[in-house]
Write a structure and sequence with these properties.
heterodimer, A: 109 residues, alpha+beta, five-stranded mixed sheet, two-stranded antiparallel ribbon, 4 helices, 28% strand, B: 174 residues, five-stranded antiparallel sheet, 12 strands, elongated
Chain lengths: 109, 174
């Protein structure tokens, strides 16, 4: 990575390294079939550093609740009550404490 | 048990009411109690409106030839409420002539033949209210985080999935 001399790039690199070492608390809520497979309604993950949502799914969620594998591809996620689009999961960074919903396909009505 | 006074009507809200918001133009309700359809539809009536359209979803006693004993609903309540408020706001954006809008969903165990969801809207003329309600029930089934489980006579339970759901197995979504 070329960061020679350019002050704006150095500043970005510094702030990124600060962010990447900050622990993050993710309060995970499970619903419907996800709740049954996880065996709980709620689990608090203490991440040593921020993760993208895609990393979180593999390295935190599935590592702790392997049975979720069965339906995870069909679940959508929410962060602080807002849906996260599936195409954003690879880039969406869980960098601050948040409430994350594991949402199987909905069936209201 | 408490009563809400709202725009000239009294509403009963017991401990079964899980979440409720209201403004001059819309009322959103999640409750474990039976929906009071008459009171909710009456709330939509406005002096300048000549129409109230409503959709009521009721629980069905069969699925693909099997006998369904009852249905059980659960919701991500604060998010469902936010999404339902968003639907009401979108209805009023898309059909600016709408008078009032009600979106109510029952949660917990719902016996067969009872109402699980109500959407109602008033408008000066019928077309806007009919279109808005029709749009809103499709949208509710697509995005609001509520789930239902059918309990069959043989004791089996199955989590359902709406055809309209944008992130399910029946339809690709990104």
């Amino acid at each position: 990575v070329a960061i020679k001399g350019d002050p704006s790039v150095l500043k970005l690199a510094e702030s990124t390294s600060i962010v990447s070492h900050r622990p993050v608390q993710v309060t995970c809520l499970f619903f419907a079939e996800a709740r049954e497979l996880a065996g709980t309604r709620r689990h608090v993950f203490e991440l040593p550093a921020p993760q993208t949502l895609a990393q979180f799914k593999r390295e935190s969620l599935l590592a702790t609740f392997p049975d979720l594998e069965r339906i995870l591809a069909h679940c959508l996620f929410s962060v602080n009550l807002q849906y996260i689009s599936r195409s954003d999961e690879a880039t969406y960074l869980l960098a601050a404490d948040c409430e994350l919903g594991v949402l199987p396909p909905v069936s209201g009505g | 048990v408490s009563y809400f006074y709202l725009s000239g009507h009294f509403f009963l809200a017991g401990s079964a009411t899980m979440a409720r918001t209201e403004s001059d133009h819309h009322q959103i309700l999640l409750t474990n109690a039976a929906l009071d359809i008459t009171a909710l539809v009456d709330w939509c009536v406005e002096p300048h409106c000549g129409a109230v359209a409503s959709f009521i979803g009721t629980t069905r006693n069969n699925f693909e030839g099997r006998t369904v004993l009852r249905l059980e609903y659960e919701a991500y309540e604060p998010m469902a409420l936010t999404q339902m408020q968003g639907l009401a706001a979108q209805m009023q954006d898309k059909w600016p002539d709408l008078g009032k809008v009600v979106i109510a969903h029952r949660l917990g165990e719902v016996p067969i033949g009872e109402s699980s969801v109500l959407i109602a809207a008033s408008s000066p003329h019928r077309r806007e209210a009919l279109e808005a309600v029709s749009w809103a029930i499709d949208e509710l089934k697509a995005v609001v985080p509520i789930w239902k489980q059918e309990v069959y006579q043989e004791g089996e339970r199955v989590w359902k999935e709406n055809r309209e759901c944008r992130h399910g197995t029946r339809r690709d979504h990104d």
